[in-house]
Amino acid sequence: MIGEADPDEWSYVAEGGKHALFRYRGADIGLSGHLLRIAKNKLARVSTTCDSCGGWDSTTSTKISTTSMIPKIPAIPVRADTTIASIDDTASQEFQRQIIQPLLCHRYIDLARTVHLPAYFCAQLYHRTLANGLIPPSRLPSWKSDVINHDTTVDINEGVNALLLRDHTHISRHRRLSSLGNTTPSSSVVLSVEIKPKAGYISSSPLVLPANRCKYYQTRYSLQQELMQMGQIHKGWRSSRSRTRVDEACEQDYQSTEGSNIMHDEAAFIPSNYSPLDLFSNNTLRMQKALVDLSCNMQNNFRVWCNGNQIFGVGASPPTDSDCQIILQDIFPSFGDDSNNDAVNRPNLDSKATLLDVIVATVTKILDKESSLLSNMLSVQQLDWLDGDGAAIIYERLVHLCNGSNSEVEALLDAAVLIPGDAFSSTWKEFATSDNNDWRSKHSTSSPYMAPKCNALPQLLDEIHHFQSYLREQQRRYDSSFDEVCDNSHFKCIEFVNKLSKDACIYLLQNWLLSLSLCDVSFFVTFRFLNEFNAVDGALKDVRQTCDHGGIVYCSMQNNNGELSTRRDIAVEYEVKVIDCDPKPAKKLRDRREVENAFRFVSKKRIDDVDEQVS
Ligand SMILES: O=P(O)(O)O[C@@H]1[C@@H](OP(=O)(O)O)[C@H](OP(=O)(O)O)[C@H](O)[C@H](OP(=O)(O)O)[C@H]1OP(=O)(O)O
Ligand SMILES: Nc1ncnc2c1ncn2[C@@H]1O[C@H](COP(=O)(O)OP(=O)(O)OP(=O)(O)O)[C@@H](O)[C@H]1O
């Protein structure tokens, strides 16, 4: 049961493309350490129409009561033929429970609770957040109700459903510490790093369109960095993008009506050196390089929080050197007593860089210990056998099979992504073992969905597999036969696609949408140093995290110049948790061809560069 709460006790902390997050700051123990995650389109719609409904007034004693905010859990679709208008919070939780948790491991995902928020509570949060000027200009359009899709599932008089989540910028004390009779942690600082790793593989689908073949050489992330530099694409998190007319109108509107204070950042775009291939490499040095690259150019892929306040990354004002010194001193109090190692007191020391070194070293160690997270994540990402180009082609085939009805296709797909297959069914086994084909068995066991019977499906998947082997052997080098092999395989695949049944299209797109979700998740690595424990006395063993408690790892701190060092390894308690694992709505497929078209600019640039070199 959720305790009494009022809008004054919730404050805006962060947002993504679709959701805004509010942290609880009141005294209710049941809510403390929790966040509300509310879809911005619902919030805007309810709030802009709720002005007349009275609202909540802090001068009166009216508060949102326990009963008005009780969890309300609507029925979850359980059959493949159930259709839903859009993927709501409850369906999303069910997707995480049935599909994501078993694939990534239960210990990495905490399920949220669905709660019901009254309209006037939402209206207060909405208006206060806008009036405080906390929203980055680039995100303002998503707060305006008349430029967003009206969600027909929202009943403005009823309020909205939202999720109550654990706040991963905090860490629960490891239970082994309590059993050791140690009640006060040596450091009061909890650091938390949020990483959005993006896709850790390079596309290898023969369905990639000829104009987009640059996708065979670089990760999507690095191609998008190039496209952003060329000004061909703009990201939601960037305030420095060229603003559209809608954005400008929104900003002006809010400046006049809400008196908000909008910050502008027109800095030039600097592409990142980060490679997701390094982070997912399962090699400690490459992983560390990835984290260094992320920390040098954070974009929306790397954020750091200190005791729940964001200190680095998009959305934070960077801390001063003395802020960083205070944090370092809190983490390593012994440095101040040791004249040889008194790094944090040295006047010329770059404390910001030292703090980031400490963070990168610790996160590397933790991710090494929890290596199954990144490897499981990569396996699910690799269910992308089609690439966005292929997904658009198969989506068009499915629309054709559904007599041109996009909405029927999308309803079928939105329901299908939520339903795992039965791995013990005969169709599943038959598919996995036909022709004694090893790769097919491997592929069908990595997917949580059930392959339907359709002759063209194994033919298509076999062709995709042959092409992938060709790319591997040829090491993605360009030679004269390359285009010919790509063309042949591409056209063969198109022929198979034209023979796919409805169920086979659904199966392929289910897997693609699942991969897409995993390419867009973030995870938190949250930790606290326990100086009183060291590796030598062995009082506290290092352990991996479980569903019930965090892990313990020992870290030896030494930065490159030897400026920060310890004579012993320090114990660190930690937790790694994945967030934003929502299913991707099938509606995305409508404009996927257009989204993927941007890559032709990089392909063209490659050709122009080669031509220039030749001439
Ligand atoms: O396509 P990408 O790789 O740019 O990913 C999009 C994200 O861009 P990013 O690269 O993380 O800055 C994008 O993130 P931002 O809004 O840029 O923070 C969204 O997550 C988008 O998903 P959705 O449309 O909100 O469901 C993401 O779109 P999908 O690819 O998941 O459709
Ligand atoms: N459980 C959590 N604990 C702490 N912070 C969180 C948590 N969940 C989300 N956040 C913060 O809120 C931000 C936005 O959340 P989230 O990614 O869920 O939004 P979204 O709109 O679904 O994003 P996207 O556009 O990427 O799909 C995150 O980047 C993170 O900083």
UniProtKB/TrEMBL annotation:
Reaction catalyzed: 1D-myo-inositol 1,3,4,5,6-pentakisphosphate + ATP = 1D-myo-inositol hexakisphosphate + ADP + H(+)
Keywords: ATP-binding, Kinase, Nucleotide-binding, Transferase
Top-level lineage group: Eukaryota
InterPro entries, A to Z: Ins_P5_2-kin (IPR009286), IP5_2-K_N_lobe (IPR043001)
Pfam family, one: Ins_P5_2-kin
EC number: 2.7.1.158
GO molecular function (one): inositol-1,3,4,5,6-pentakisphosphate 2-kinase activity
Function: Phosphorylates Ins(1,3,4,5,6)P5 at position 2 to form Ins(1,2,3,4,5,6)P6 (InsP6 or phytate).
Entry remark concerning the domains of this protein: The EXKPK motif is conserved in inositol-pentakisphosphate 2-kinases of both family 1 and 2.
Name the record gives this protein: Inositol-pentakisphosphate 2-kinase
Organism, as annotated: Discostella pseudostelligera
